Amino acid sequence: MPLRDTLARVDADLAAGRVPVARQRLRGLVSSFPDDLTLRRRLAETYRLYGEPAEAGRWMYLEQDRDTAETSAFEARYHSAQRRMRALAWRGGESLAATAFAQKQLSAVRAACSEATGRPVDWDTVPSDEEQDGRQSNLAGALAGAGCLLALLAFMAIWVNGVVALFD
Questions:
Q1: What percent of the chain has pLDDT over 70?
Q2: What is the DSSP letter of 97?
């Protein structure tokens, strides 16, 4: 369905009080057109109707005239750079953003994510928290395994020493 027709349906849904349906249509449009800031703004407006400041802040994050309370709520809900990067649902480079402010915001989030993960990331390969947590848990598992092995070797040395002393 063309963009114009879907937006007409969104308007009809909102006029009829079908806010959840309008929100779903807008989410689909943002997914299809992630660089369209107007669609993001409209989606933020539907979340305001729900009284969800974090989600309104999420979809207004790339706008200069955003509400600071909504932005703070978004940043609190999506506290890591990886989560913010995934939540913004951007695809492609920052150069696709229509405004200099949006480009700056996208660059800042990507840079923070790169710093947090210790490697360069881009919008098409956002690392998941599980991936980052998996690396940390692998290290913790390896250290725990090494500790257990060391304890087992110490126990065996004591046991063997005790058996030898028993038969002496």
A1: 85
A2: S
